[in-house]
Write a structure and sequence with these properties.
alpha/beta; Rossmann fold; 2 domains; six-stranded mixed β-sheet; 15 strands; binds phenylalanine
Length: about 400
């Protein structure tokens, strides 16, 4: 069941401005598939996220980032005098529910653009629907390359996994001087499988060896047999490109089995829950991410301050990516004279050097931005900035 997230629908301030009716005639044949246009004083956009379940912090943080962006936009007058309203649906972390939510947003709520999902497997379930109806979709943080390959209406504001895999392979080889690495991947997760492959490819090219490649499935609780097999190969690091709940448990069980090699991961680790679950066991591990709260740039520090004022906590990377996805969409909408879906699509595609919290965003021909990544080290429940790696 999809549920409307309780704190999700932004209350739209009463607008006293009288607006011309939305220009339906200017719709091209292209947008006829959904017929979505803006009428009245409100621009409706949709959001799909995991607000509950074992990846709930992904959905909630992203949602909060979006809400901050919407609040600021509407306070500044909205877009062409219209306020933006977000209809947010919870997919409970399930791809099938993400698809159901997508159909509802398009067919019932008549949204003109969609923000979501975080997880690549769920964005992959949503993207073909957005493409069929020609509704622009921006994933804040799905990093698997296949997501934007679903069609020309699908975008993202994050880097992609071939880059992220390279970042961690280079970090293992150059910074940790590791020669032998083990992999423990989630075979039910497109992101995890892709990232494990990209990591292995680069690590081997650099001269390293993948001594063992083990797997688990999201939802598993016991990883001891895989970790025992890994222990027998004496790796110098273990690459675990999964999500925080399983990674937290894996770190505890690895320490329990006497494994001392650091765990390495990707952005899927980014949650305050990771250290809550993993406790001291996750200390000394490293992961790639989209941003660091220790970044002193004015954009980042301003965002952290405003987010803290609204939600009372420091924003994680997901919150920053949700905020950036919304900003990129709003910027594109402002450049779309009649706010038709083909115009919005073209305007997103034309995004160049947009100053976002997580860096400059320029869409390439495949609707992916080229951005740098940071590597963070986990120390005493906090994420310590190590280095920034730029794409070549
Ligand atoms: N990149 C992950 C994916 O594609 C999702 C994710 C992004 C998780 C950022 C946490 C932080 O599935």
């Amino acid at each position: 069941m999809i549920s409307r997230h309780p704190f999700s629908v932004v209350l739209v301030a009463l607008s006293v401005v009288l607006l011309a009716p939305a220009c339906k005639k200017s719709q091209t044949a292209d947008s006829a598939a959904s017929g979505a246009t803006v009428s009245g004083n409100v621009i409706k956009i949709g959001e799909v996220g995991s607000m509950t379940g074992s990846e709930a912090t992904f959905g909630i943080s992203t949602h909060n980032g979006i809400m901050l962006a919407v609040k600021q936009l509407n306070a500044a007058g909205g877009i062409a005098g219209k306020k933006v309203e977000v209809v947010s649906l919870d997919d409970q972390g399930k791809p099938e529910e993400a698809a159901v939510a997508m159909n509802k947003l398009i067919n019932q709520d008549k949204v003109i653009a969609i923000l979501g999902e975080v997880a690549s497997s769920r964005s992959l379930a949503m993207a073909p629907i957005a493409q069929t109806h020609k509704i622009p979709m921006i994933s804040p943080s799905s990093t698997n390359p296949k997501v934007t390959e679903q069609g020309d209406y699908i975008f993202r504001v994050c880097f992609i996994d071939p880059f992220q895999g390279t970042v961690m392979a280079k970090f293992a080889w150059e910074s940790l001087k590791a020669k032998k690495v083990a992999i423990l991947r989630d075979v039910k997760n497109d992101y995890s499988v892709g990232l494990a492959d990209y990591f292995a490819e680069t690590f081997k090219k650099l001269g390293g060896e993948i001594v063992i490649d083990q797997s688990y499935s999201a939802g598993d609780m016991d990883f001891k047999s895989q970790l025992t097999a890994i222990r027998s190969k004496n790796p110098e690091a273990i690459f675990v490109p999964g999500y925080y709940t399983e990674v937290g448990l894996i770190s505890i069980q690895a320490k329990g089995l006497g494994l001392t090699a650091p765990l390495l991961g990707g952005d899927g680790w980014d949650s305050p829950k990771l250290t809550e679950i993993g406790g001291d066991s996750i200390n000394g591990s490293y992961f790639a991410n989209h941003y660091s709260t220790e970044d002193n740039s004015p954009e980042v520090q301003k965002f952290i301050k405003e987010y803290k004022e609204m939600f009372g906590v420091v924003p994680d990377g997901l919150a920053a990516m949700g905020y950036d996805a919304a900003l990129v969409l709003f910027d594109a909408m402002k450049r779309s004279p009649q706010l038709t879906t083909p115009q919005i699509r073209d305007a997103i595609a034309a995004t160049q050097k947009f100053k976002a919290v997580t860096g400059l965003i320029s869409m390439d021909a495949k609707r992916n931005p080229v951005k740098s990544a940071v590597v963070l080290k986990i120390e005493k429940k906090s994420f310590k900035y190590q280095t920034t790696i730029n794409p070549t």
